Amino acid sequence: MKFKKIILRSLLIILLAALGYGIYYCWVSFPIISGYGAKNMCSAVFLAGRSEAQVRAQELSFTPMNIGTFTVDYKDSSVTGTVFGFAKRKAVYRHGLGATLINERSEAAVRGQQYRLAASPQINTDTIPWPMGDKLLPVADSSVDMAKLKSAVNDIFIEKDTTAPVRTRAVIVLHDGNIIAEQYAEGFTKNSKLIGWSMTKSITSALTGILVKQGKLSVDAKAPVPEWKDANDPRNTITLQNILQQTTGLDFVEDYSKSSDATKMLFQKAAMGTYTAGRPLKDKPGTVFYYSSGNTNLLSRIIREQVGEAGYRAFPYEQLFYKIGMYNTILEPDASGTFVGSSYSYGIARDWARFGLLYLNDGVFNNERLLPEGWVKATATPADAAPLGQYGYQFWLNAGAKENPANRLYPHCPTDMFCCDGYEGQYVFIIPSKKLVIVRLGLTHSDKFDVDAFAANVVACIK
Predict the structure, then answer these.
(1) Locate the Beta-lactamase-related domain: which residues (predicted)?
(2) Which residues contact 6 (CB under 8 A, 6 or more apart)?
C-alpha cells in the first residue's frame, strides 16, 4: 500500500511538472508564434500583394506556425494573430514603411509617427537598360556554357522530394554585369517582392559604409552608443568594427528554437537596437565571433542617430537604393521607427542582383562611387575571431580556416566568394574571380537543398 502511494505521488509530481512546463512553453512561445505570423502575413499581403491563402499554405504552413490564427483586416491594413484565442498580436501596414509589429507602444502611437519618405522616381524601368532599369539587351557571352547554366538553374526548381520541398522562387545569374539566367517559380515573377531576412544585414552594412564615406562614422572608433559612454563600462571599448564583424562580446543568444534574446527582440521589443545596447558584456570585444541579429539592430540604431530624424526614413532610398536601380525594395521599421536592419527587407530578385553587382564592382555603380575606397575589400576580409574565416562586415565569407582553407563554408566554391545569407534559403553570392553574382530566393526548410552544390554548378558554367 505504501509503495502504491509513492508511485501515485511520483506520477502526480511528474504530471504537475509536465503541466507546468506546458504552461511555461505556451506562455513564452504563443506570443512569438502569433507575432511572427501577424508580421509576415501583413508584409506579404499588403506590401508584396500576395493572397492570404498562398501565405497560409506556404509561409505559415510549418510547425508551430500552423497552430496560429491570422486575421487580415483590409480596411485597417492590419493583421491580428492569436494561438487558440490567446497571445493576441497585431501588425499594421503603413505606406512606404511596410509592416510593423506593435510592441510596447500603442497602435495609435505607432500610426502617429511622423516621417518623411523619399520621393519615388517617376520612371518606366522597362525603357531603361539594365542595370539601372529592366530593359535587357541581347548579350553574347562566349565564356558561358549557356545550356549547362540553364540546366543548373532549372534543376533547383524541380522538387525531387515532395515531403521536403525546396521551394525555390527566383534565381538570377549575372556575369560581367549582365543577366545570363533568370527563372521564377509558378506564381512569382520579376515583380514579386520577397523577404530578404538576414540578407538585410548586408544592406545595413552598406548604409554604414555610406556614412563612413560621408565622414559621419569610423570603423576604428568606439561605437557611438550612449549606454556605453562611461569609461568604467566594460562595453566602452566596443568599436564599430566589432559590431560589423559580430565580435562585440555582448551576452546575446541567437536561438529561434526557443525563447531567446533574438525572439524577444524581434517579437516583443519596440526598440530593438536599444534592447541590444542594454545587454551585458560576456566576452572581451574582438575575441569571439558570435552571429547576432542584435548587433545589426544596434548598428541600425546608430545609423538613425547619425543621419538624424529629418532624413532618416529617406536615407536608404536616396543614398543607396535609388542610386543603383533598387526601386522595388523596402526596409521595414520596428515600433520605435528604427529599421529592423537584421531581418526585415522586401525586394524583387533583380534588386538583389543589383545589390550584388554594387559589391562586385567594388562599391561603384552607374559611374558613381557609393561605398568608400577599400570598403568592399574590408567587407570581404575575415574577422580575426571567425575560426573558418567565415564573416566580414555583415557578409558571410568563404575564405576558410587560416591553417586549412579547405575547411570553409562552401568547399566546392571559390575562396573569394562572399555572400548575403538569409533564413529560408535567401542568397546573393558575389564571386569576383568569376565576375559572377548569383541570386537565389526561396522558402526552404529542408536540409536537402545543397546550396554549395548549386553555386558550384553555376560557377562550373563559366569557361
Answers:
(1) 169-441
(2) none
Backbone angles phi, psi at 350, to 5 degrees: -65, -35
What is the DSSP track for 200-268?
HHHHHHHHHHHHHHTTS--TTSBP--GGG-STTSGGGG-BHHHHHTT---B-----SSSS-HHHHHHHH
Cα atoms in the 13 Å half-sphere on the side-chain side of 61: 14
Q: What angle do CA 238, 266, 445 make, to 5 degrees?
A: 110
Q: How far is CA 387 from CA 227, 288, 390, 392, in A?
A: 30, 9, 7, 12
The lowest-confidence range among 2-11, 71-80, 83-92 is 2-11
280-292 tens-digit pLDDT: 999 999 999 999 9
The cell for 170 is 527566383
How far, in Å, CA of 62 to CA of 64, rounded? 6
222: Cβ contacts below 8 Å, ≥ 6 apart: 228, 236, 237, 238, 239, 240
Q: Cell numbers 558554367 correspond to what residue?
A: 461
Spell out the domains of the chain, with CATH numbers in brackets. Answer: 2-102 (no CATH), 146-459 (3.40.710.10)
User: Per-residue confidence at 217, pLDDT binned at 50, 70, 90?
Assistant: very high
pLDDT tens profile 382-407: 999 999 999 999 999 999 999 999 99
pTM, rounded to two decimals = 0.95
List, in order, residues 6 or more apart from 432 with CB less than 8 Å away.
360, 416
Burial classification of residue 8, based on how many CB atoms lie within 10 Å of its CB (0-12 exposed, 13-18 middle, 19 or more buried): exposed
Q: What percent of the chain has pLDDT over 90?
A: 90
Per-residue pLDDT tens digits for 230-243: 999 999 999 999 99
Is the previous residue joined to 64 through a cis bond, with omega within 30 degrees of 0? Answer: yes
Reported residue count of the chain is 463
- Number of other CB atoms surrounding residue 107 within 10 Å: 14
Q: How far is CA 460 from CA 150, 363, 451, in A?
A: 12, 26, 14
